[in-house]
Amino acid sequence: MTSAQNGDRPIRNTRHPLGVRITAGLLCAASVVLGPLGYLRAIAAGENSASEWYTLSFSVSVGLPLLAAAIATVAGDRRAALWSLALLAWPVVYVVAVHLLLAG
Length: 104
Hints:
Layout lengths: L16 H28 L5 H26 L2 H9 L3 H14 L1
């Protein structure tokens, strides 16, 4: 029996959806900016450090949207979680764009 069924006051949810969306937005914005920058650094890097930049670029581009989606899911904000997961297509977009710009 829950406390509300027992006659007590119902427990209020103290989460703030705006704070969750701001956090997810900041993580996604960092992914949008830092992913392509890391990829460009990897292309410009020599043979010694290119693999580190590719790894950092991929981890930022995929890891931060997944982290944002996890935070939004735990907080119960499905819309923010879906937008964060939709951002997983961003690496494909910027890799193609970078190679098209460098080829031309």
